[in-house]
Design goal:
Length: about 650
């Protein structure tokens, strides 16, 4: 797991070499173990077409790379300033597989014409390496990085179809004079890009790296703001910064340095519609059991210690059960597990059930793990908020600061942690959402119902009043159109009840899941911690998409009126995992990982909320109507309505505006 950055001039014969090291420095937290810098004169901007390069490490890592110069040295700086450079690749390394200096990046082939910077893990790299060795390639390291490099050399950019894992990487091919940027199928690892006013193409694992480049001074994207405050997420590839985009999952970019063209292509998408409705349920359950075991075990490969999050639910419980079983069979040390709980002394109502430590402790006992806990209290949010907002950069789904503390806890003991993200989106874990749409008449009826639900912060009719200060600037931003754009590739005729469930699963996998993954990556990497998500192993995803909806969701629950329904979702996963997990946990009411902020915001944290949001000179009120927002906040503080998601989003946005000067 690492951080990557890059810059390519699309017009001028040079990039700003004074900015690029700062770009890499901004994400040092993603890779504290090594750093690398590659400056390339590609020849595409000069008549003689000659190419050459300089490759350096940093002084603090010079003991690892005895051959490479370090970038701070006078000799290197003197040589660097003698030439024009139109391409730069930077890397910060978190050493997980082959922790030796042989894993240094940027990494090249023997000809020094194919270069890679890479963030992620390829879980089938050993099988691919064997095939590549049969093709005649010889490897200098034990890394998966080198396997990507020679996979590209052997199969071209189509090699991405062979990679099973999580990744965001860039490959520069000096023979073709092309740069390829690739993101994994589901968006587990983030990758951002922009083109500056002087036509420099920039990319990075985090936005803060792009902002470090001298010519990158984007303004706030006000349409993106409307998008976020509707969905509490970004459904498109927008960010808060105008003209800075996130590369969509399952896509790659091709940058041609000869023509200066940048093209984006999709190489993979979710498909829940070709399910196996005629197959025996017992056969599907047996296959799911085997694939689950393989998926978890495949993601236990590392040269450092691995732990697992363990809440009180089935997703992290399933992963922990299978991982600890593998640890015991292979005589490894006890699996370390981590839980964050909440002080509920001032909680009330439904939030009294938010602390799941008791269930997690019981599962730790059953699975014989080495268990660690942290308890969050009212006030912990405000204490972590500046660091949290800096690392998250822009708000995304949910009240995610507990994830920040969970990663902080795990990072004290391990370098890699397994997380349970993906189980709900693949196996139908949100039955209260599906009951809204299961009896839809047609696609239009489905879209109206589901869009109404996903307006999580402001309804369309509220947006006009709340954002009246910028109403003219955002008048053409239609949130319904944004919602419908997710379904452009989906057949929407002659739909059955099963199809409506699958439409919901498709939407959630494309949007909600992606938001969760972006949050998890940034908050774990803030602590130099790699999070792996076994429930998004490629083979498991392919199988889950083929499982009929009726094996995932209990349709008899459709008439229940409460969101707190029991035992309605993830039927097949629960049945398979009942071999490991006790019935009282399997059948428990679904509980997301959330703090009791509804109570805290109108109790112990009320003064913080007022100080942050009920002052007219807050940054958000240059864009939002103070009185309109104040009315909604006071509804929560007085107990008239539960506006916890809105209050959290406003606090998070206000802090992001302050940190990034938006």
């Amino acid at each position: 797991m690492c951080g990557i950055v890059g810059a390519v001039s699309l017009k001028k014969p040079f990039i700003d070499i004074g900015s690029v090291k700062s770009m890499t420095d901004r994400i040092a937290h993603r890779g504290p173990d090594d750093a690398g810098h590659l400056f390339f004169h590609t020849g595409t901007k000069h008549p003689n077409k000659v190419s050459f390069y300089l490759h350096a490490t940093e002084k603090q890592f010079a003991h690892l790379e005895h051959i490479l110069p370090y970038i701070e040295s006078k000799a290197f700086q003197r040589e660097l300033n003698r030439h024009d450079w139109d391409l730069y690749l930077g890397h910060r390394r978190l050493s997980i597989i082959d922790t030796s200096p042989a894993g240094h990046q940027p990494m090249s082939d023997l000809s020094k014409n194919i270069w890679l910077v890479y963030n992620g893990e390829i879980y089938n790299f050993k099988a691919l390496r064997k095939k590549l060795e049969e093709e005649g390639h010889r490897f200098l390291s034990e890394t998966d990085s080198e396997v990507i490099l020679y996979s590209y050399i052997t199969w071209g950019i189509d090699c991405i179809h062979r990679l099973k894992g999580m990744f965001a990487f860039a490959i520069y091919d000096n023979f073709k004079k092309k740069l390829f940027l690739v993101r994994d199928r589901y968006g587990i690892k983030p990758l951002y890009y922009t083109i500056t006013p002087d036509k420099t193409f920039l990319f990075a694992s985090e936005v803060k790296s792009l902002l470090a480049y001298s010519e990158c001074n984007p303004e706030l994207d006000k349409s993106a703001l409307i998008e976020y405050f509707t969905f509490q997420n970004f459904l498109t590839n927008r960010t808060l910064w105008k003209d800075i985009f996130i590369l969509e999952p399952g896509h790659f970019l091709e940058v041609d340095l000869n023509t200066n063209r940048v093209e984006k292509r999709q190489y993979w998408d979710f498909n829940f519609f070709d399910y196996q409705g005629n197959r025996k349920e017992e056969d599907i359950e047996n296959e799911l059991h085997e694939v689950l075991k393989i998926s978890v075990e495949r993601q236990l490969i590392a040269d450092v210690e691995i732990g697992s999050y363990l809440s009180g639910g089935i997703d992290s419980g399933s992963i922990t059960a299978l991982a600890s079983s593998y640890f015991h069979r292979t005589h490894r040390n006890y699996l370390k597990t981590f839980t964050v709980g909440f002080d509920l002394h001032s909680a009330s109502g439904l939030e009294l059930s938010y602390d799941e430590r008791e269930k997690a402790e019981y599962m730790s006992y059953l699975f014989k793990t080495e268990h660690y806990e942290m308890v969050l209290k009212a006030g912990d949010m405000e204490r972590c908020l500046p660091d949290f907002a800096y690392h998250l950069e822009e708000p995304r789904v949910g009240q995610s600061y507990p994830n920040y503390y969970a990663a902080k806890l795990a990072s004290k003991f391990v370098k890699v942690v397994l997380g349970g993200i993906g189980g709900d989106e693949l196996f139908g874990g949100y039955p209260w959402r599906y009951k809204r749409i299961i009896d839809s008449k047609d696609f239009d009826d489905f879209a109206d119902r589901y869009f109404s639900y996903w307006q999580r912060l402001f309804k369309r009719e509220e947006l006009k009043r709340v954002f009246s200060p910028i109403s003219e600037e955002v008048k053409n931003t239609d949130t319904k159109d944004i919602f419908l754009s997710i379904f452009l590739r989906v057949k929407a005729k002659n739909l059955s009840r099963d199809d409506f469930i699958n439409l919901a699963l498709y939407f959630e996998a494309k949007t909600f899941l992606h938001g969760l993954l972006v949050v998890e990556d940034k908050l774990s990497m803030a602590h130099s911690l790699e999070t792996r998500v076994p429930l998004l192993d490629d083979d498991l995803v392919e199988l889950a998409q083929r499982i009929p909806p009726y094996m995932k969701v209990d349709y008899s629950c459709e008439t229940k009126d409460s969101e707190e329904v029991n035992g309605c979702g993830k039927k097949v996963l629960k049945k398979v995992m009942s071999k490991y997990i006790p019935a009282n946990i399997i059948n428990a009411k679904k509980q997301g990982f959330s703090s009791p902020d509804s109570s805290w915001f109108k109790g112990e944290s009320i003064e913080f909320v007022k100080k942050k949001l009920l002052k007219r000179d807050a940054n958000i009120y240059y864009l939002m109507d103070y009185e309109a927002v104040k009315d909604l906040i006071e509804e929560h503080l007085s107990g008239k309505a539960n506006r916890r998601l809105l209050i959290w989003s406003l606090i998070n946005m206000e802090e992001a505006f302050k940190i990034y000067g938006l």
